[in-house]
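We treat protein structure as text, and this decision shapes the records that our systems exchange. Such a record has a labelled line for the sequence and another for the backbone structure tokens. The record that follows is passed on verbatim for readers who wish to inspect the format:
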Amino acid sequence: MKKVLRLPTILGLLLVLGAIAGGVILIKQGPTLFLKASPSLTPNQLRVTNINDNSFTVSWLTDESTTGFIKYGADNSLTFTAADDRDQLSGKTDEFAVHHVTVKNLTPSTVYSFKVGSGGKIFDNSGQPYQVTTASANKNSTPPNDVAYGTVVDQNGNPVEGAIVYLSLANANPASTLTKSSGSWVIPLNLIRSADLSSWASYDKAASIEEIFVQAGTLGTATVVATTKNDSPMPKIILGQNFDFRQVAEEKIQPSLTPTPEATESGKFTVEQIATPSASTSSAQVKILNPEQGEQLNTQKPEFLGTGPVGEKLTITVQSPATYSGTIKVDSKGNWQWTPPANLTPGEHTITVSYTDKNGLLQKIARSFIVLASGESDLPALTATPSGTATPSPTPTQKIATVSPTPTSTTSGRTSMPSTEGGVPSSGYLTPTFLVFIIGCSLIFLGLFIKKLVRF
């Protein structure tokens, strides 16, 4: 008589329960296991800047160019998405290695949670969303206009587009901005908040120290120490070098040759062995720094900025339905700025800057730009007052939330946190879910089959 192996009922039940448990675990953990983000797409050097009563900015780096966005919402409801600042301007999604996302139209004194999207995957803060508290509405009038601006170039003198310029003042909420295709950048200092976000930052327009860190990803970084006296414009910043613009001499700027240091965990930027630079030398050609070709301006009275031969008288003409013209003299640093005498109408305009050189030849440069209608866009704007002083529109710029190993929310509403190594996959990845579901079901049926086979 052939001996029949019988599996005890309790053991059969344990096999079935084990198969069910294994299926549940795979279903729950499967997407994470299958969708681990590659290191090249993992956000690093995450910083929160520009916290104001209705906006804040999140910036980070990835090893490779990829798409970037922010999922955010009040408390833990991440119902909204904010694209990269450049994607917001172009209306299409592009890939970058240096990411800068500004979240707008927020409510004052409100806790917002967010997660970082990189390459189609979602990253959080060790299983929890990051949190930022917006500032309270500032009831004080906006301080007088004051801007810092300059240009970032690489080692070969080429303009660097898409680099992040971080600017920090003492007891103030640091600001950040992206460089344009010309390498130029502009930060309105008068709109920076205090460190606790309760009021406008207090600083000396002629003597306060500015610490600047330029982050251009694989192109390199640069650090600068300057003062509010010589930041408009600031001498040219070259990637891979350190500068001290506090002392202005007549010689050519001599940058230090030491490796560029990284930003410290305190949010300050370390600068080592910095040589004494001088003011930027004047250019033999006239140039327009603001606006760029085809740029959209969210103001009807923009401030035009540029460079040219020192002491030269320039003729500036803006052509639109109405034509405005004027003359301006290039200052001793080779810079000029001009404001049209009246508001420009919405639509396309052309600015032409010309002068006659020493040989009697006419030298000129022209550039077209677009003036947006009021309320059409919430883009930042470099606006001029009737006196011709550069005035930014009420677009918020705020403080850098410094990177720290253990990110926590501060009482001032700032948050600083590195992204987690493991990605939390966004919704929409159904294939891995179905796969692990099928595996779980297969384990269940396999357990039942084994139990029946051994028993009979």
User: Anything to note?
Assistant: The domain at 41-244 is CATH 2.60.40.380 (Immunoglobulin-like). The helical segments are 9-34, 85-90, 430-455. The first strand starts at residue 44 and ends at 49.
